[in-house]
Amino acid sequence: MEEKKQKEESLLKQLFVFAGSFKYLSILSVILAAVSAFIALVPFYYIWRIMKEVIRVKLDFAKAEGIAAYGWYAVGFALAGMLLYIAALMCSHIAAFRVQASMRKIMMEHIMKLPLGFIESEGSGKIRKIVVESSAATETYLAHNLPDKAVSVATPVGLIALLLVFDWRLGLICLIPAVLGFLFMGSMMGKEMENSMKEYQNSLETMSAEAVEYVRGIPVVKTFGQTIFSFKRFKDSIDKYEKWTLDYTKKMMKPMIAFTTAVNSTFAFIVAAAYLLGGHGISGSLGLNLFFYIIITPILTTTLMKLAYAGEAQLQVKDALMRMKGLMDRQPLPEPQQGKLPKNSALSLENVSFAYEGAEKNAVDGITLRINAGEHVAFVGPSGGGKTTLASLIARFWDVDKGSVKIGGVDVRDITSDELMNQISYVFQDSRLLKMSILDNIRIGRPGATDAEVMKALEAAQCMDIIEKLPDGVNTMIGTKGVYVSGGEAQRLSIARAFLKNAPVLILDEATAFADPDNEQRVQAAFEKLSREKTVIMIAHRLSTVTNADRIYVLKDGIVAESGSHQELTAHDGVYAHMWKEYNKSVNWKVGAAL
Questions:
Q1: 312-352 confidence digits (pLDDT tens)
Q2: Which residues of 522-551 are buried (b: 16+ CB within 10 A; e: fewer)?
Q3: CA distance 18 to 135
Q4: What is the distance between the terminal CA atoms of the chain, rounded to a whole angstrom?
């Protein structure tokens, strides 16, 4: 019991860190809720007095004294209890909202400092669930469950006093189902329940993350007709959640039935008590107390049910805090005290090795290469070869485990994050537009840009046909009233951001993946203009897009298998030559030829 009390105090202590001075409102809400619970029991005393008076006068109400007064006392105390409870909820809600807002603000500020690699690897669905749903669980606990728990603890104390004062024998008998209920409740709580709650939240988290990724991948699913296979991971997460839920429900079925039966069996015990204590006839005082106990004992049943759910809510909050702590424990990449400025846009990697967390082998292993300022290179190779990982290390989405990545002769770890982002533009495979106007979406590339500069970037990125067909032009809000753009159009808009940013180093990660033929032609034209006088790294599976690169690096199993120009690499039998041959087969493939 002492350990449980310490755990609850620790839980509140963690929540109060986010509450600031508003924690006193939470404390006040608990006090007011407990007092309201005691006051709410007072009307039952006056009901007992009214019943006693009715029995005394034997329905001759002309002889009755004080019935009306007792009734008004009962109404007055009932109203007082309600008002105090409402005041308690007002205090608890104000504190809960402040805690939730503070949690989300602190978490988002921390997430903004974390490396982009971590955000990509964790998945936005999982992070969103922690930020939104875990903080919402704490809000529900502080706003509702905490004052309800105070009522659930105070009410049995007051009830026990009432039950024992009027007839201690009946009181003890009525407490038997309550004791049984507590025992069955204890069998459902504890460490096992805590682990089950963690598994439950893990299942929800996985299902949420897979749902988000599946929805985002719908354009690819529709393009390549892989509905069944793409749905498999999402369906597996649903199946696992279903299995866990059914297993847990079956496991909790018997103790929950026992608990519900025990707390609802009070009337059976009252009947048994009446038989035992009034074997030769029920006297006036015993009958009065029996009626009173029949009226008041259902409160005990309701209170015990609330207490059971309050215990479950506490476990949910504990799990939510653990998940938030796991996110907050992730450390941002170290920032240099005095950042250095690159001399130019040349890139050099020296003996670079990196492995993802939990991976058995390196994603890139001992890679050394140099890219001159203004040079256009391509990273190609089989899936999982390390292309995107290597580009991510150049942009410092992660820090290398071994070796160094330099821009203009300066290690990226010695460049401040703001300055590094000024040096690099990264056009992702999956371009994302936020729910704001086209103008504001593009202005993300350089927040201080004027409207005229944004329009110039849109024109350079071949986006004017998109703007012309939108209802409000460049001021059209994406995502409202059914206004959306295709994958290829979103890609061109993201290129407009890169135009506006005008960074000396440009990384294009499968930037034409979602483009149809018409969009691809426009994207390529935009790339050609964007790439002028910049150091460019292209990551591509469509080998036709990299044939004009100054140098092509073929990555396989985390190492540079070969490098050279397109002509040099196709001149001998190697990995690239084989890829080029297979690529041309796929391009020239016809249904008739296949038949």
A1: 677 778 878 888 888 888 888 888 888 899 999 999 999 99
A2: bbeebbeebbeebbbbbbbbebebbeebeb
A3: 11
A4: 76
